[in-house]
C-alpha cells in the first residue's frame, strides 16, 4: 500500500519498513520486494549486496520476480565477485539463523 500510495500517502521508506518486517519472517514476496527496493534505491540507500541477499532468499523459495531480478543484476555486471560472495554469505547466514530459530 505504501509503495503504490493505495489508501495512504505513497512512501517508499514506509513500504521498505513493512517489507522488511515481513521479509525477516521469511515471506518470499516481501523478500523479493525489499530486494528490488535495495536494487533501485527506493526508500532505502541503494545497496546491491543487500539487494542480492534478499532476492537470493526469495529465489530459494521459487519467487519468479526475484529470479528474474537476480539474473538481470548478475548479467549486467553490476556487482564484483567479492560483493556477490558477500551477499551469498549473508543469505546463507540468514537461512541458518532462521532455521535454528524455527526448531
What's the topology here?
Elements: H1 12-24, H2 28-40, H3 48-60, H4 64-75, H5 81-101
Helix pairs in contact: 1-2, 2-3, 2-4, 3-4, 3-5
Summarize the structure.
The protein contains five helices and no strands. With 103 residues, it is mainly alpha-helical. The chain has one domain.
Task: Provide a descriptive summary of the structure in words.
With 103 residues, the chain is an all-alpha fold. It has one domain (12-101). 70% of the residues lie in helices and 0% in strands. It contains five helices and no strands. Helix 1 (12-24) packs across helix 2 (28-40) and helix 2 packs antiparallel against helix 3. The termini are far apart.
| Element pattern in H and E | HHHHH
Please state the CA-atom Rg, rounded to the nearest Å.
13 Å
Number of helices: 5
* Gross geometry: globular
Q: Unreliable stretches, pLDDT < 50, 5 or more residues?
A: none
Could you tell me how far the N terminus lies from the C terminus, measured between alpha carbons in angstroms?
33 Å
Mean pLDDT: 88
Tell me roughly what share of residues is in helical segments: 55-70%
Features:
103 residues; mainly alpha; 5 helices
Amino acid at each position: 500500500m505504501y509503495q503504490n500510495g493505495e489508501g495512504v500517502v505513497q512512501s517508499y521508506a514506509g513500504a521498505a519498513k513493512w517489507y522488511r518486517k515481513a521479509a525477516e519472517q521469511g515471506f518470499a514476496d516481501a523478500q523479493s520486494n525489499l530486494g528490488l527496493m535495495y536494487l533501485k534505491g527506493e526508500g532505502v540507500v541503494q545497496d546491491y549486496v543487500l539487494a542480492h541477499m534478499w532476492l537470493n532468499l526469495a529465489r530459494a523459495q521459487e519467487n519468479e520476480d526475484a529470479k528474474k531480478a537476480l539474473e538481470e543484476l548478475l548479467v549486467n555486471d553490476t556487482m564484483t565477485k567479492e560483493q556477490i560472495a558477500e551477499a551469498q554469505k549473508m543469505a546463507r547466514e540468514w537461512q541458518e539463523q532462521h532455521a535454528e530459530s524455527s526448531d
